[in-house]
Amino acid sequence: MKRNESYDEFIKGIWRDNPVFAQVLGMCPMLAVTNSAVNAIAMGGATFFVLVGSSFLVSTFRNIIPKQVRISCFIIIIATFVTIADYTLLALVPGVHKELGAFIPLIVANCLILGRQEAFASRYPTRLAVMDALGMATGFLIALFSLGAVREILGDGALFGVKLFGENFEPWIIMILPPGGFLTLGVILLFFNWFKYKKDEFLADVADAERSSR
Amino acid sequence: MDNLLWIFVSALLVNNFVLAYFLGLCPFLGVSNSLETSFRLGLATTFVMLVTAICAWILNTYILIYAPYLRLICFIVVIASTVQFIEMLIKKLSPALFRAMGIFLPLITTNCAILGLAIFATNRGYGFWEGIVYALGAGIGFTLALVLLAGLREESELSDVPALIKGTAMNLIIAGVLSMAFMGFAGLFSSA
């Protein structure tokens, strides 16, 4: 039973409540850095670290943090983790850090992270909060990666810098440029809408069939 | 003077915060359903950006040279508290102005466009006046993008759109087209 519970918290972030596709949170870093798969993964990794770290800390201290100043406390905790992530990336992968530029510090302003602290980590025990953060962060990583991969494949004809198509492929430059981010995410959301619509239709059909068989 | 003008136009059109840098997308997609509201939000954001530019300049010049690793935390805390202070001041001094933009002030303090402005201005080493002009350009550019999208969305409410597309998906695609249009402004500078 107990294991089931934390498993639920983990899995809901990946699919049902996916932060990007279902809740449309954390859009700013999402679109800005996903012009290649590597950047997307670096961004997702940094966000992963910050989200899990701050969820752990916030839920550990949830009974000590006064209600009135909780938002400020959350932000300072998040900013600390972001600073750690920023300097770590600078030390380990200077090239990627340079390309992501100002968007690493901007993880602080990602509404997904603050949203999880306020909605979940500050109310539930540490174990569940960490599971929730892990799930949400994985969902975010998957979303970032799928967007980055689509944009790199179409805009550059490559994935992780490896050319996928022959000489004759004409890259869609627009996909790497800002408009491509809006358009790709728009189309992905469209697909999700369609999927949900089909599912609702299917469920309605099943309910109808059950009713008529009775 | 030329340099200041360049900074202004670049922040306003070519490197528009929303459409080229993807900053401040949450209010961009969330609040842009009516022209009136988005104009007021844009006004409030421009104002906060000006305050931010001044705060960032003061912090950078006098405090952060001693402790650069505290920059992020300092920016957030100082900007948020300054905005809150000004909000109280406006409430006291001018209730009309407070009604026009007051309710938005606390919402936008942690907006990434605000923090982004402070970080970009720092990274580029802008001085005091450059920072102010940059904030002004970015704020007006943000308002422009917000008002444009709100206008398009109000129109699309009246037209016959398939239910499947309605909502965020359609807004993102509209924003993509807008962003493409704004890319054209890059030509302003390549010849000059």
Characterization of the model:
The complex is a heterodimer of chains A (214) and B (192). Chain A is mostly helical. Chain A has one domain (2-213). In chain A, 72% of the residues lie in helices and 2% in strands. Chain A contains 9 helices and 2 strands, in the order αααααααββαα. In chain A, strands 1-2 form a two-stranded antiparallel ribbon. In chain A, strand 1 and strand 2 form a beta hairpin. In chain B, helix 3 (35-63) packs across helix 4. Chain B has one domain (31-184). Chain B has 10 helices and no strands. Chain B has 192 residues and is an all-alpha fold. Chain B has helices at 2-14, 25-30, 35-63, 71-93, 95-101, 105-108, 112-123, 128-158, 168-183, 187-190. Chain A binds chain B through residues 24-25, 27-32, 72, 75-76, 79-80, 82-83, 86-87, 101-102, 105-106, 108-111, 114, 174, 177-183, 185-187, 189-190, 193-194, 197, and chain B through 19-26, 29, 69, 71-73, 76-77, 80, 110-112, 114-116, 119-120, 123, 164-165, 167-173, 175-177, 179-180, 183.
